[in-house]
Amino acid sequence: MRQVHTGTFTVLLADDNLESLKNLKGLLEKEGYDVRVAFDGNQAHYLARKFMPDIVIADVQLTEMDGFSLCQALRQESNFHSTLIILLSDNNNEWEEMTAFDCLANAYLSKPLKSLAFLSRLKGLLRRKPNQIPRQLILDSGKLVVEPTTSSLQVEGNNIHLPSKTFEIFMFLASNPETVYSRDELLLRLWGSDDEINARTIDVHIRKIRQKMGERYIHTIKGVGYKFKV
């Protein structure tokens, strides 16, 4: 597995809870990340545009501009299409998680963070930075067009919308055609850790893909996993 050299990555950490901010900053700096901090959403937006960090980690309950609004604002700018954005929350509910992914966040994590699990997740995200994914995939003799930078796709000219994480899974499989991945492998590659996530979560996302696109592209290999095939 390719190693991630954390010293080359800059992080913008935004949280109005000073204790939480201090603890996470210390953890990241110990691992070699270059960390800058913001205490509210407006400051985070300003610093992100000024310093162009590789990673933005923001609490969703930020004052001035909440984490969801910050994520949306950054994603609307082309300079931040490939930036890793992680949203943190003291809550752990489905609505917030769906909102985070609708905003095109790369991850939604609940506080308090478990240090080792968080670092593992972060390194997993860095291994598959979006700017390592092709800008466009044209497959199946042009019948399938995938646009990673806008998280959109077309099937025979029809626009298809998938939730952010579901699109991410589809994009990963489509970028590696004919390769079979088990549920555990997909969890590890797309979440960075499979310790706290049920492997059947993958089945839910695959079901969403098939509801939108049919069973034409994502194939089940019984007893093994899933693969993309045209």
TrEMBL record:
4-aspartylphosphate found at: D59
DNA-binding region, residue intervals: 136-230
Signal peptide segment: none
Pfam family, one: Response_reg
InterPro entries: CheY-like_superfamily, OmpR/PhoB-type_DNA-bd, Sig_transdc_resp-reg_C-effctor, Sig_transdc_resp-reg_receiver, WalR-like, WH-like_DNA-bd_sf
Boundaries of every OmpR/PhoB-type domain copy: 136-230
PROSITE patterns attached to this UniProt entry: OMPR_PHOB, RESPONSE_REGULATORY
Domain Response regulatory positions: 10-126
Keyword vocabulary terms for this entry: DNA-binding, Phosphoprotein, Transcription, Transcription regulation, Two-component regulatory system
Protein name according to UniProt: Response regulator transcription factor
Native species: Shiella aurantiaca
Phylogenetic placement of the source organism: Bacteria, Pseudomonadati, Bacteroidota, Cytophagia, Cytophagales
